[in-house]
Design brief:
Length: 238
């Protein structure tokens, strides 16, 4: 998953342990969270032709997601099934206010697992923020409890899971990090000023069971889509 997938990702990871892991992909708008996650899944499935993946998009429609991916040079993969929550909300507009979308997501995963069995190995949720908005949870304790059991369900079904999480631009804004502690890995995508101007970057904050660099690596877009080209030129190795 971390090697032989996205070009240059092996510069960050020296090991390749990923099975049954929950990985948060965090960043604010425009940092390529969806593109990175879909590309990683697609490249993994190219290397594993008997496997399939499920990408649940809550904020974007399937058509919008595919258009955005195409603009980045990312081709659709027929073995990534896209679950479009926008269509679900339109179909059940009258009942949507009472729909538990976390429970709906769990049922979607379980039904896919029942249908595809061991072939279903990788899942993405885009995004956790949108899921919170659509799921009624009365207090912080209930949120933590339900997310704990949701993550447990993903692991119990032998899934490598990518959970996208939108972060605010304002550093003074405090955001709960309960999911960061529950997750096995946290990948941060962002935009920073470098000696070469503004650049998108990737930084692995943590990844259990793996040896990885702590530097920020620059993400570029070439004719084949995403590529990780190397550490920022002003990265001092901290």
């Amino acid at each position: 998953m971390f090697q032989n997938t996205i070009k240059g990702l092996e510069k960050i990871f020296r090991t390749n342990s990923y099975e049954r892991m929950i990985i948060l992909v965090t960043g604010y708008t425009g940092t390529l969270k969806s593109t990175f996650t879909y590309t990683l899944m697609s490249k993994y499935l190219e290397n594993n032709p008997k496997k399939i993946g499920l990408y649940a998009t809550i904020e974007e429609s399937k058509e919008s997601l595919l258009r955005n991916l195409k603009s980045m040079g990312v081709k659709p993969n027929e073995r990534i099934f896209i679950a479009d929550y926008n269509r679900t909300r339109e179909m059940y507009r009258e009942e949507s206010e009472n729909t538990d979308f976390l429970e709906l997501t769990e049922k979607l995963i379980m039904s896919t697992k029942e249908e595809r069995g061991e072939a279903f190995t990788v899942f993405a949720l885009d995004s956790l923020n949108a899921l919170y908005t659509l799921t009624k949870m009365d207090n912080d304790y209930l949120i933590r409890k339900r997310i704990y059991y949701f993550f447990k369900m993903l692991r119990d079904n032998d899934l490598t899971s990518f959970i996208l999480k939108e972060m605010p631009r304002e550093t003074s804004y405090l955001l709960k990090e309960d999911e960061n502690f529950l997750a096995d890995g946290v990948i941060e995508l962002g935009i920073r000023r470098t000696l070469e101007g503004k650049k998108r970057y990737i930084e692995v904050i943590k990844m259990r069971q793996n040896q990885h660099s702590m530097k920020q690596y620059i993400i570029d877009i070439d004719k084949d889509g995403l590529a990780i080209v190397g550490p920022s030129v002003d990265d001092m190795g901290l």
